[in-house]
Amino acid sequence: MSFKSVVAVIFVLAATLPIVIRFSSRQEQSSENQPVQSVNPKNQPSLTQAQSVAANPIKDGKCVRCNLSGSDLSGLDLSRVDLTEANLSGANLTGTKLINAVLQGANLQDAVLIQTNFQGADLKQVNFTGADLTEALMLHASMEGVDLSFATLQKTELRDASLNAAILREANLEQASMYGTILREADLSSANLSQANMRYADLTDAKLKGANFSGTWLEFATMPDGSNYNGVIIY
């Protein structure tokens, strides 16, 4: 290559190099201004989905011995769900459907159960101490050995329910429907049964000391001594 050719190449390079440098710089600045996109591995649940799963431990209709203390389960349909020995203390189940559900041995102490539907549910040995069961539906429910001490059951539907050996000390059952309710060996000491419908109820061997029967309907009821109600209650 001649001397003139070398000089010509150098001249061309000197003229074009600043343009290349400026173009490269603009590309880098453009890349810096682009938002960084997070990479979520394929098929991995988002944080919201993961939180949703963690917040709802009831899977395949079962939540045996699970801890739902203080949870808001109001208005849900939990019919036929198995909640055996679950901890639902202080939970809000207002208007919740628990039709034919299994809650045997569950803890519902101080739970809010206003207008909750327990029709046909298995409630054996459940702890309802201090719970609010106002206007709850408990028709045909199996409630042997339940503890309803200090519970509120005003206008609660307990027709044909089985409460053998149940504890209802100081419970408020004012205006409750207890038509045909089985209360054999139940402890109703100091309970408020005023204006309750207890026609055909079975109170064989029940404890009624201090109970309030003001205005209670007891026609055809079986009293603790096995006799039929004769219009007089002295306990």
Describe this structure in words.
The protein folds into 2 domains: 80 residues, Pectate Lyase C-like, CATH 2.160.20; 93 residues, Pectate Lyase C-like. 17% of the residues lie in helices and 0% in strands. It contains 2 helices and no strands.
Compile the SSE list and pairings:
Blueprint: H1 3-33, H2 47-55
What attributes does this structure have?
Pectate Lyase C-like; elongated; 2 helices; mainly alpha
Instruction: State the fourth-level CATH superfamily of the largest domain.
Output: E3 ubiquitin-protein ligase SopA
Write down the overall mean pLDDT.
84
Structural category is mainly alpha
Order of H and E elements: HH
How many whole angstroms does the radius of gyration measure? Answer: 35 Å
Task: Offer a concise description of the structure.
With 235 residues, this protein is an all-alpha fold. The chain contains two helices and no strands.
